[in-house]
Design brief:
This protein has about 120 residues and is mainly beta. It has no helices and eleven strands.
């Protein structure tokens, strides 16, 4: 019914930047909150940042000031600009969306994940 497709991951040196994108498609009427989570090897998945449809944002303390989340509501897309990357940012990054379908059903959706590797 709804798919999230992430792109933009890769290998970067410490101090570098990457921009992640996530596009939602399917029988979507609207999307409330969209966000990015990450999971490092051996660790639990954690929130990186999320953004409401109105543009309100929330960041994990570890990325505040370095990462910026934004979205294009018309294109059902969310972005994560990551600057000043550190080796501890290495993880699989997952896109998340709280959607409302045309049927009226609420559906939380996850992307398949994109790997970000930061070398020291």
């Amino acid at each position: 019914q709804v798919q999230l497709v992430e792109s933009g991951g890769g290998l970067v040196q410490a101090g570098g930047s990457l921009r992640l994108s996530c596009v939602a498609s399917g029988s979507i009427y609207s999307i409330n909150r969209m966000g990015w989570y990450r999971q490092a090897p051996g660790k639990q998945r954690e929130l990186v940042a999320h953004i409401t449809s109105g543009g309100s944002t929330n960041y994990a303390a570890s990325v505040k000031g370095r990462f910026t989340i934004s979205r294009d509501n018309a294109e059902n897309t969310v972005f994560l600009q990551m600057n000043s990357l550190k080796p501890e940012d290495t993880a699989v990054y997952y896109c998340n969306a709280n959607t409302v379908l045309h049927s009226g059903r609420y559906l939380e959706v996850w992307g398949q994940g994109t790997l970000v590797t930061v070398s020291s």
